[in-house]
Amino acid sequence: MNDTTLKGKAHVYGDNIDTDAIIPGKYTKTMELQTFADHVLEDLDPAFKTKVRAGDILVAGDNFGCGSSREQAPLALKVAGVSAVVARYFARIFFRNAVNIGLPALEIREHDIAPDDELEIDLKSGTVKNLTRNVQYLASPMPQTMIEILIEGGLVNYLKRYGDYHL
């Protein structure tokens, strides 16, 4: 991600979506990332993989990403083309895994975002604009270092660029 502004169509889901609903465990034993995209959200919304387009934004309610600590959950969303996830609240381990792999995760306590609304996210200001409804939300503040990690595309890229880290 070179820019801090993201724009895409909203795909809206409910509360308590766990990591098994994001990517069923039986598909996590591979290094083929396309497998993740092929099966993302298949038990929750079998049509998601055909509806999602690069840059789209997943919107959820409370406790998104609860369950196991598998890193494949945010990775599956990112590989499928999701540019960011907006939720009322994230399970902490999902939130950190998302940032680590370069998938923005923004918390907005109250929103009325509907399916197919056009959203625009500015990571630096923490704003989410609903262009369809002409409403703007302010996400919970994200530390500058996390924003920089997201801009670099994840923690590994960030450390390669700024850290004393060598592969």
Describe, in plain words, how this protein is organized in 3D.
Helix content is 30%, strand content 19%. With 167 residues, the protein is an alpha/beta fold. The chain has a single domain, classed as Alpha-Beta Barrel (Aconitase, domain 4), CATH 3.20.19. A seven-stranded mixed beta sheet has the order 4-3-2-1-5-6-7.
First-to-last CA distance: 21 Å
CATH-scheme architecture: Alpha-Beta Barrel
- CATH homologous superfamily heading: Aconitase, domain 4
Low-confidence stretches: none
CATH topology assignment: Aconitase, domain 4
| Widest sheet: strand ordering | 4-3-2-1-5-6-7
Number of helices: 7
> Residue-averaged pLDDT, rounded?
93
Biggest sheet, open or closed, and with what strands and sense? Answer: 7 strands, mixed
Number of domains: 1
The overall strand count is 7
The rough form would be described as: globular
Q: What would you call the structural class?
A: alpha/beta
